[in-house]
Design a protein that fits this description.
The longest helix is centred in the last third of the chain and has 23 residues. It contains 3 helices and no strands. 92% of the residues lie in helices and 0% in strands. This is DUF2065 domain-containing protein. Pfam families: DUF2065 (PF09838). Keywords: Membrane, Transmembrane, Transmembrane helix.
Length: 62
């Protein structure tokens, strides 16, 4: 189980690193937009991301 969790973490880091590696200018623009968001907006984006991830896991493993 821990191997699966570490593999998922490693894959997440690879995916997170794609945009800054491939297009650092766009990544910087996205980051600046996030800095301009309110705390509530950032929380909503985080919640939406978690829910989509949970839904994807449910679809894949049910």
């Amino acid at each position: 189980m821990s191997d699966l969790l570490l593999g998922a973490l490693a894959l997440m880091l690879v995916i997170e690193g794609l945009l800054p590696f491939l297009n650092p200018t766009l990544w910087r623009q996205v980051f600046l937009r996030v800095l301009a968001m309110t705390d509530g907006q950032i929380r909503f984006v985080g919640l939406s991301s978690m829910l989509m991830g949970l839904l994807l896991l449910y679809v894949l493993y049910s």
